[in-house]
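Quick question, first post here. What does this chain look like in 3D?
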Amino acid sequence: MRASLIQIAADPDETANSRRQRAASLVREQRGADLVVLPELWPVGAFAYQSFEDEAETPAGPTYEVMAEAARDAGVWLHAGSIVERDPDGTLYNTSLVISPTGDLAGTYRKIHRFGFDKGEAVMMGAGADLATVALPELTIGLATCYDLRFPELFRGLVDAGAGLFVVPAGWPARRRGHWTLLARARAVENQAYVLACGTAGTHADVEQAGHSIVVDPWGEVLAEAGPDEEILTVDLDAAKVEATREQFPVLKDRRLGVVAPDLLR
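> Answer (accepted):
Ran it through. Tokens below.
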């Protein structure tokens, strides 16, 4: 299974429409891959809060239209990163789109954990409520976004839903790059699953981005890691390695469910 991660830069002088067309060209160049991944909120910039209202769209809006055509042309499964979605009731969500090689919308995921500590995304956007997976021919992928990476219970839920590969688009700040790579490896090790974590390059609203997109195997080994600038990672994954790892070292079978902290029993 060949995966390509497109670590695109979000240049503030580039319009969202121009960036969509540029991203589509990069997707088309990945013909021969099975899965292509874009980062979080790449059309607008993950920290460009002042643009969220103006750039909000529906899941079937302009980003989907451009990316669906690119996925069809390349013949790939495309995780098109995430968009600012406007629900019919007016609520904004940070929503990921997964597109099939025929251009159909195969799945969506509204980000559950919103970053900002009572400002920014945390107050501007609604929280998703549902886990999301998409079954590819080789593996079932579990969907998570950026800040979700800090919440291991989400990934346990995705494992229980059948995921063997996590796709994590992000707009992760450069000042916490060490956490980014550490958490990606941790989620792979504890769940014995592949992690494809795709970040952005450049600067979003004066927030320097970490870049360093990373691919981690079910043993926690880093198969590839990008630098800080715009870059494309292409990696061949052995889908059978997920089940083989879980059989060789069956740690997931030793999970104890329903354990409650003593102070919560009072």
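The mean pLDDT is 95.
The domain at 2-264 is CATH 3.60.110.10 (Nitrilase/N-carbamoyl-D-aminoacid amidohydrolase).
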